[in-house]
């Protein structure tokens, strides 16, 4: 794969999209499965795994913590072994989480649950601004010693581990459901039962994914009752082999492309809404409503539970038949970037009428302004979602009219996104 340029002009599709798109494995499932495999005793092979920056960070961290992670990118497998060597280092261990929210939250919980050792965890500058305090508070209530050498409640962290002691605690996971997922996954390793009382709202889809994957790895956690989880100390019993589902969020770009260029794509292995572990599969239902709406009427969609996919729709909203209102977005202001503000800025750059509120965006289509370069703010989803918009043949002559600044940010979850887009464009025009 040749390196992507600093600014990438997107070549419009000359023909409707056709063919098959092989999706990468799910980021959320790969990083959860790596952690859960590390908590087992026997070797575990993950197949269909995602190979990207976020999963590389997770695998590298687990190796730094002592276990073996063998990666075979050609076969898309990750094999976790030598779990007995975890946490055996006598010197402090440095763990780098980059901008990976999953790695950041899951590894913080894992290190705090370690029986011994000193762990220094840090990420990139933007990661130092992402919410951590709910998890830090909860882990401290369970006996963890966590020092924040910078700003209290944010990375970098220094953890002096001595295991988790159990007990009744409160957790505020309103800023990120990953804070709760992280705690749930390590809670069974505590020396006594843990009761987690949630304070504030939680987005449930990714928590359900966590609970269901934990069950596949041998630990059954009853669903929350009145916002309370009860977790008894239980040993993980991972399967020898575990298959990762294709990434439902990554699928959203390819599901959106036919709305932009026509045609149809097949996405082998993608689970239909409600049939797999990923809530983002419900994006297909949003697209069905987009296609069913009467011209000129408002499309009003709550993306709170599937917010990673909101950019996929927002970026192509200039091409839709009426205004689009997208709600449920407040928490996305604290992700890779402030996604609400960034999306408003980029859509306005393209001439769109955008109303930005704390929790929502309302986009009324206006004629697209060509020859603009989309800023990506270090956020993979800006690069990919506007990459799909650029496939629209705005001038009708196949000439690029939209460019993406720093397209390589897609490496966070989908390193070959733009080469795959080229391939699909080629295959579509071959017919
Ligand atoms: O648990 C997970 O795997 C994820 C949870 C969501 O994060 P928040 O709960 O922080 O919104 C989502 O945006 C992220 O991409 C993956
Ligand atoms: C929010 C996202 O990632 P993270 O896992 O870093 O939170 C995302 O992938 O859209």
UniProtKB/TrEMBL annotation:
Transmembrane segments: none
Keyword Amino-acid biosynthesis recorded: yes
Stretches assigned to the Enolpyruvate transferase domain: 16-419
Pathway entry: Metabolic intermediate biosynthesis; chorismate biosynthesis; chorismate from D-erythrose 4-phosphate and phosphoenolpyruvate: step 6/7
Compartments reported by the entry: Cytoplasm
Name of the protein in question: 3-phosphoshikimate 1-carboxyvinyltransferase
PANTHER family: AROM/DEHYDROQUINATE SYNTHASE, PENTAFUNCTIONAL AROM POLYPEPTIDE
A single GO BP: chorismate biosynthetic process
Biological source species: Synoicihabitans lomoniglobus
Pfam families per record: EPSP_synthase (PF00275)
Binding site for phosphoenolpyruvate: 27, 101, 130, 178, 339, 381, 412
Record key words, sorted: Amino-acid biosynthesis, Aromatic amino acid biosynthesis, Cytoplasm, Transferase
Biological role: Catalyzes the transfer of the enolpyruvyl moiety of phosphoenolpyruvate (PEP) to the 5-hydroxyl of shikimate-3-phosphate (S3P) to produce enolpyruvyl shikimate-3-phosphate and inorganic phosphate.
CC per GO annotation: cytoplasm
């Amino acid at each position: 794969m040749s390196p992507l340029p600093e600014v990438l002009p997107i070549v419009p599709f000359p023909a409707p999209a056709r063919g098959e798109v092989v999706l990468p494995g799910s980021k959320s499932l790969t990083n959860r499965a790596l952690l859960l495999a590390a908590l087992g005793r026997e070797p575990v092979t993950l197949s269909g795994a995602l190979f990207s920056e976020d999963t590389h960070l997770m695998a590298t961290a687990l190796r730094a913590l002592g276990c073996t992670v063998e990666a075979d990118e050609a076969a898309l497998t990750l094999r976790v072994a030598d779990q007995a060597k975890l946490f055996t280092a006598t010197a402090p261990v440095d763990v780098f989480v980059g901008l990976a929210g999953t790695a950041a939250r899951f590894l913080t919980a894992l290190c705090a649950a370690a029986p011994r050792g000193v762990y220094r965890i840090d990420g990139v500058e933007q990661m130092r601004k992402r919410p951590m305090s709910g998890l830090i508070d909860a882990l401290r209530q369970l006996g963890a010693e966590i020092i924040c050498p910078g700003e209290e409640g944010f990375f970098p962290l220094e953890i002096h581990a001595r295991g988790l002691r159990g007990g009744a605690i409160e957790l505020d996971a309103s800023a990120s459901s990953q804070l709760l997922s992280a705690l749930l996954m390590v809670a069974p390793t505590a020396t006594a039962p843990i009761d987690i009382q949630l304070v504030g709202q939680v987005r449930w889809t990714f928590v359900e994914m966590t609970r269901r994957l934990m069950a596949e790895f041998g630990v059954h956690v009853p669903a929350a009752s009145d916002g309370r989880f009860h977790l008894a100390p239980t040993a993980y019993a991972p399967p020898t082999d575990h298959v990762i589902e294709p990434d439902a969020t990554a699928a959203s770009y390819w599901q959106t492309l036919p709305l932009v260029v026509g045609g149809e794509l097949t996405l082998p292995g993608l689970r239909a809404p409600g049939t797999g572990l990923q809530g983002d599969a419900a994006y297909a239902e949003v697209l069905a409503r987009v296609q069913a709406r009467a011209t000129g009427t408002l499309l009003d969609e709550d993306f709170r539970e599937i917010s990673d996919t909101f950019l996929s729709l927002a970026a192509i909203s200039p091409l839709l038949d009426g205004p689009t209102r997208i709600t449920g977005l407040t928490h996305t202001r604290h992700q890779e970037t402030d996604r609400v503000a960034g999306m408003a800025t980029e859509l306005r750059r393209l001439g769109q009428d955008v109303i930005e509120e704390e929790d929502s965006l309302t986009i009324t289509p206006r004629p697209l302004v060509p020859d603009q370069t989309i800023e990506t703010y270090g956020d993979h989803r800006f690069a990919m979602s506007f990459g799909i918009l650029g496939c629209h043949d705005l001038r009708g002559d196949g000439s690029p009219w939209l460019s993406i600044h720093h397209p390589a940010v897609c490496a966070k979850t989908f390193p070959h996104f733009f080469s795959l887009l080229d391939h699909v464009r080629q295959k579509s025009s071959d017919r």
